[in-house]
Known about the structure:
It is built from 8 helices and 7 strands, in the order H-H-H-E-E-H-E-H-E-H-E-H-E-E-H. It is of the alpha/beta class. The chain has a single domain, classed as Glycerol-3-phosphate (1)-acyltransferase, CATH 3.40.1130.10.
Amino acid sequence: MSQPYAMLRGMSQTDTSTPPATYVDADYDPWIEFENGAWVRFIRLLTVWWWDHVYRLQAHGVEGLPAEGAYLLVPNHSSYTDPFLHARPQDRLLRFMAKASMFEYPIVRTVMRGGGGFPVRRGKGDVFAMELARRLLRAGRPVVVYPEGTRYRKALELGPAKRGAARLALEMHVPVVPCATWGVKSRELYGRSRWRRPRATTVYGEPMDFSHLEPTSENVDHVRDVVWAKVHELYEQAREIDAQR
Length: 245
């Protein structure tokens, strides 16, 4: 059993790649009933300082984010720290998937958990991560899903979108908030020197409602394409705003 799954059940942390065959409520509950304690507040303060003072983050469209209830935030993915960036302008704790291997290191695991992360075994159809995302949404929590599935840092273009976010939105009947960030890929792509302070610009779109659609394969593809087209549009807006800064 790999470390993230061993951690769930309090078992010895053996480094193998095989998760449990089945899960019970006790596996999910510690990740859902998340305490907003001192460590979470510390991570929040660190996040605020990092994005405000190092990356000079500007966020637009924050007023349209749901103040309560579940929703899916669907951004492009450029950096390991993207979930903390997208949480910066919000008062709510965003929950997000992070690749399971990151939870094998105690310090990284503590930071990830404190920031709202939970493990996902990418490319393996992770039953635990998808079911936990459903349960978090059912409990009224906001969840971040990156449709690209991995970071795209070597080119300015966005990567292709996978179907997971669209499927969750249709299964759980929750609104989708598209989002795009410009400025956190490799600096040379923006023509910036290594010594120049970076800057990030994020644009949040209006919530999109697909609750009238059934979670059929055709509708999942349709929602994926519609949402990702909106993310592309917001990405261009973020690029234009950045050019004027």
